[in-house]
Design goal:
The complex is a heterodimer of chains A (about 325) and B (about 475). Chain A has 13 helices and eight strands. Chain A is of the alpha/beta class. Chain A has an eight-stranded parallel beta sheet. Chain A is globular. In chain B, about 60% of the residues are buried. Chain B folds into two domains: about 260 residues, Aldehyde Dehydrogenase, Chain A, domain 1; about 190 residues, Aldehyde Dehydrogenase, Chain A, domain 2, CATH 3.40.309.10. Chain B has a seven-stranded mixed beta sheet, with helices on both faces. Chain B has a six-stranded mixed beta sheet with strand order 9-8-7-10-11-21, sandwiched between helices. In chain B, strands 1-5-4 form a three-stranded mixed beta sheet, covered by helices on one side. Classes of the chains: A alpha/beta (about 325), B alpha/beta (about 475). Chains A and B meet through helix 2, helix 3 and helix 12 of A and helix 9 and helix 10 of B.
Chain lengths: ~325, ~475
């Protein structure tokens, strides 16, 4: 029943093979019953144990050079996000400017990974980021609730991609997932992936609505099997959003998925990560759970708005030896 | 830097004041011992931390007499609620001086500062808090109205959890109204002597707690002293047997907490990632210097490869080294003697044909160290599946059915603890009922709490420590 995680199991894909829905698991999605049996056959997650492990990793003491490296790495992993009804082209341009030069007083400060906006503003973001290497991410599929017909969701994705997004943050249908209609959810992710074309797909599980770690693990595998490039915790619109134990379970999932298929999937916690301390805890967790291969913006992102400011303040503190204040980082 | 290297994060040792010479603590005062002092060494660096007095028969006699006097005149007659006040005071002082105790424990023992900081010292304080609450409620311990203390308790404790084992012994003894003569292990006496300072600071009446340092002869003198009413020992089965013989035929009441060879049973429906954490915690916590360590991993054959692969990957992330570094997971082996014992048994394991695996990485040059070690292809006939290694060495065995798991788990001369990993509650309960072990953990391992009794079956000893049962060992019906 746990063949998916057995490193010696037969039928594993060649690690060098190109990404895609892995052959080794082609048969698990052939029917609702088979898919349910597979997802429910994944090893369970003991809640107490997972939370204890996350807390234990949170006690690592990251100081001096390690802290400096961690702060720069975390900055380079930020998806600088604005997802408000009141967003305007001006605000998005302002955000893009901050993404390019997070700390105007320090040229050595890295730029962030992406700017994340609603689909209608993706073109504004893309234009403001031309030539920077910073990605334009757009939320789609009736974000944040996902309550719309599949046709509308696909149209939403096509629109965002057409506007210039090269990363799409979709939400899964939590209603269908919780009702046990796993294959529906899977097929929707497959369809969205197809609509993305070359754009990277991040699949938001909205773990705050899934509630159990078992469900988080199942949803992670579902999203990875469906072709998601990144699995993402939350929309940021539901509480609780990203937590360390949820991120732990997702990191275990991507680690096991690569061991089974050779395909490396990224992870993005989003919402609720506000401090450098939180970010460093996540980096420690990546390092010790998934491994150093994930310590790269291609495979780990922080979905955040205020986190960047604290990272910058801590970075300035390390550089100058004293704390400055909020006026020393730019507002958007 | 292309990888995430954790910079050194050493805990400062400036909070600890080491002395060149440490005396015995008798009748409320520090005094010299009659024996030739012994050095106590930091096993991580081989640095001599100080010289510690060695108590002779005469010193032990002095301590027992002080304890008898304090029992008769002060501590025995004292109202329970007043004894409780002293215990609460000690508990608070342990908390206030927690960092000092943690650093000293790590220096003297070699265990990681995170463990002394997050486990040993907080649990020691918790034991005093818990038993402080009992001091005026002894009517409810289950021995009828107004149970009586035994009198003078002679207590001998090991080096693996020096302060915590002291707390397990001293707190219930004092709560029940006994006075104590305690003999710490010769390689780790320093936190016991710092505890003596706490007793002074708490204004504990002289003679209630006496601490006599020394080696085996000193311990024997404590156990064999004619005026000791109650003997409590934690340590090796070999010494435990000697003590049982020495106490036989006397009026002394005895509890023994001895060795173990715990089975950690992983069923195929276990939460694998948490089971791996539990296996690691079970055997590598405190360098495996744990009597209830999960030193025998019994894993269902159908998930053996998966679990062992995950376990090796996880062990590869353990950080072995400077115990004072806040990121260290595995510290130093406590003494050259223990290291030699571990090496001997590991050599036997290899000679018997088990497959040895250790993670990559170098050990520090100075000090006593042993790498986390996993033996696979172990059978119940191997000595590494039967003898207590008391080090970071795991033996992996397999089973096919729950019955076979129980049979193999119980196939031991020990019976201190066991672990069960399964997502199926009914299986956990059924298996737990069949295990002959004093503590059975389900989906966790090495969890301790003052309210929970701890103790063994078979050659793991008799009597319980902790909880109501543990307290009863220090009382008799009136």
């Amino acid at each position: 029943m746990t063949h998916a995680l057995d490193p010696t199991a037969p039928g594993r894909a060649d690690p060098a093979a190109p990404a895609g829905v892995p052959d080794a698991f082609a048969d698990v999605t052939r029917s609702d019953a088979a898919f349910r049996a597979f997802l429910h056959g994944l090893p369970g997650v003991d809640q107490v144990g997972a939370e204890a492990r996350a807390a234990q990793l949170g006690t690592r003491s990251i100081k001096t050079t390690a802290k400096a490296w961690a702060i720069d790495t975390a900055i380079s992993m930020v998806d600088l996000t604005t997802l408000e009804g009141a967003d305007t082209p001006g605000r998005v341009r302002s955000l893009a400017a901050k993404a390019r030069r997070p700390d105007p007083s320090d040229d050595s400060c890295p730029q962030v990974a992406a700017v994340c906006v609603y689909g209608d503003l993706a073109g504004v973001a893309r234009d403001a980021l031309v030539g920077t290497g910073i990605h334009t991410a757009a939320v789609a599929t009736a974000f944040p609730s996902g309550r719309a017909s599949r046709a509308v969701k696909i149209a939403d994705v096509r629109d965002a991609v057409g506007n210039g997004a090269d990363e799409i943050d979709m939400v899964i249908d939590r209603g269908a997932f919780l009702a046990g209609r796993y294959l529906d959810v899977f097929e929707e992710v497959v369809a969205v992936k197809e609509a993305c074309g070359d754009a990277h797909l991040k699949v938001i599980l909205e773990t705050g609505e899934l509630r159990t770690y078992d469900a988080v693990r199942r949803a992670s595998w579902l999203a990875m099997l469906a072709g998601g490039d990144v699995i993402k915790t939350s929309t940021g619109k539901v509480s609780p959003a990203a937590t360390l134990p949820v991120c732990l379970v997702m990191l275990e999932a991507v680690r096991d998925f690569r061991a089974a298929t050779g395909v490396q999937i990224g992870v993005k916690p989003a919402g609720g990560i506000r401090t450098t301390k939180d970010a460093v805890k996540h980096l420690v967790m990546i390092n010790e759970v998934a491994g150093p291969d994930w310590l790269h913006p291609d495979f780990f992102r922080f979905g955040a708005s205020s986190l960047l400011d604290d990272l910058l303040l801590q970075r300035q503190k390390l550089r100058t030896g004293h704390y400055s204040g909020p006026d020393h980082v730019s507002v958007v | 830097m292309t990888v995430f290297e954790y910079a050194p994060a050493p805990e400062s040792r400036s909070i600890v004041t080491l002395r060149s010479h440490y005396g015995l603590f008798v009748d409320g005062e520090f005094t010299d011992g009659g024996g030739t002092p012994l050095p106590t060494v930091n096993p991580a660096t081989e640095e001599v931390l100080g010289e510690v007095a060695v108590g002779t028969d005469a010193d032990v006699d002095r301590a027992v007499r002080a304890a008898r006097k304090a029992f008769t005149r002060v501590w025995g007659p004292m109202r329970g609620c007043d004894r409780g006040k002293y215990l609460f005071r000690i508990a608070r002082l342990l908390q206030e001086r927690a960092r000092e105790f943690a650093v000293l424990e790590t220096l003297d023992n070699g265990k990681p500062i995170t463990e002394s900081r997050d486990v040993d010292v907080p649990l020691a304080a918790a034991h005093f808090f818990y038993h402080a609450g009992w001091a005026d409620k002894l009517d409810h311990v289950g021995l009828g109205a107004a149970p009586r203390p035994h009198g003078v308790a002679g207590q001998v404790i090991p080096w693996n959890f020096p302060l915590l084992m002291l707390a397990w012994k001293v707190a219930p003894a004092l709560a029940a109204g006994n006075t104590v003569v305690l003999k710490p292990a010769e390689t780790t006496p320093l936190t016991a002597l710092l505890f003596a300072e706490v007793c002074q600071q708490a204004d504990l009446p002289p003679g209630v707690v006496n601490i006599v340092t020394g080696a085996g002869d000193t311990g024997r003198a404590v156990v064999e002293h004619a005026d000791v009413d109650k003997v409590a020992f934690t340590g090796s089965t070999e010494v435990g047997k000697q003590i049982a013989r020495a106490v036989a035929g006397t009026q002394k009441v005895l509890t023994l907490e001895l060795g173990g060879k715990a089975a950690n049973i992983v069923f195929d429906d276990a939460p694998v990632d948490q089971a791996v954490e539990g296996i690691v915690r079970g055997i590598f916590f405190n360098q495996g210097h744990v009597c209830c360590a999960g030193s025998r991993l019994l894993v269902q054959e159908s998930v053996h490869d998966e679990v062992v692969a995950a376990l090796k990957r996880r062990i590869g992330t353990l950080r072995v080294g400077d115990p004072l570094d806040k990121n260290t997971d595995v510290g130093a082996i406590n003494s050259p003697e223990q290291l030699a014992r571990i090496r001997e048994l590991v050599g036997i394991g290899q000679a018997e044909g088990a497959q040895l695996w250790q993670p990559e990485g170098d050990l520090p040059e100075r000090g006593t160290w042993f790498k986390p070690t996993v033996f696979t292809d172990v059978t119940p006939a191997h000595r590494i599946a039967r003898d207590e290694v008391f080090g970071p060495v795991l033996s992996v065995l397999t089973f096919r059915t729950p019955d076979e798991a129980v049979a193999k788990a119980n196939n031991s001369t020990y019976g201190l603890s066991a672990g069960i990993w399964s997502e199926k509650g009914s299986r956990i309960l059924a298996v737990a009922n069949q295990l002959r072990a004093g503590v059975v953990w389900a989906n966790t391992f090495n969890q301790f709490d003052p309210t929970s009794p701890f103790g063994g079956y078979k050659q793991s000893g008799y009597g319980r420590e902790g909880g109501r049962l543990g307290l009863r060992a220090y009382l008799k019906e009136s």
